[in-house]
Design brief:
Length: 226
């Protein structure tokens, strides 16, 4: 799986409006807890971090894509390329925006949540969103293509047995009539709500359905460190 390929193709996916809607939702949710220091896990290019910093909240971000981490760091944000279990320090809140949890299988998710709990202050909160079964089977599955002057992207996604396999093919113009071809497959896993009810160190405090692209295609989860 190449997250860097996804990062280079992201601008062709048409997710800007959805991302902004999620950011506003996260900002409003975090506003109920008044955190002073927030860890953004899978921070991408740092859009949410910029909004938090503008509100006087200290942030740190991590992303496993070098392309994303470098782009965020170039904005002057405190971002590094690493996983959550490699993070040091504690935070009042942590966030994982736009399907981050769905990129983890069941075993990896358990490890991830344990590490999140370990980085939260007592009473700290963790906010994340996940794809619902409807979001995977009725919204994410299928095909699309997009292009600009220098790129052509084709995406084919297939959902079966709780896994969404999304195959990316990206052509990038290197000179007139000469393109470089890259391909990668990203796997996402469906996680039922019950999987989050008995997480060591975290208590599921709130959950609610979201309609980002279609009715109830996502769910917002809010945990508290116990």
């Amino acid at each position: 799986m190449s997250l860097d390929l996804y990062a280079r193709a992201e601008h062709l996916l048409g997710i800007e409006e959805a991302t902004e809607r999620l950011h506003e939702l996260y900002l409003n949710t975090l506003g109920n807890y008044a955190p002073r220091r927030v860890l953004d896990i899978g921070c991408g290019r740092g859009g949410l971090m910029e909004k938090l910093e503008a509100r006087g909240i200290e942030t740190a971000g991590i992303d496993q894509s070098a392309v994303m981490a470098d782009a965020a760091a170039a904005k002057g944000l405190n971002v590094s390329q690493k996983g959550v279990c490699e993070v040091t320090g504690r935070f009042d809140a942590a966030v994982a925006v736009f399907d981050v949890l769905n990129f983890l299988d069941h075993e990896a998710l358990s490890v991830f949540l344990r590490c999140v709990a370990g980085h939260l202050e007592s009473g700290g909160v963790f906010v994340a969103d996940i794809n619902t079964l409807h979001g995977f089977s009725e919204v994410a599955e299928g095909s699309m293509s997009a292009e600009d002057n220098d790129h052509f992207l084709n995406v084919e996604a297939h959902f079966e047995s709780g896994e969404l396999h999304t195959h990316f093919t990206l052509f990038t113009r290197e000179r007139p009539e000469c393109y470089r071809k890259e391909q990668s497959t990203i796997v996402q896993w469906f996680h039922p709500l019950d999987r989050f009810r008995n997480v060591p160190g975290l208590k599921l405090m709130q959950y609610r359905n979201l309609s980002l692209y279609d009715t109830n295609d996502k769910m917002l989860l809010v945990f508290k460190k116990i």
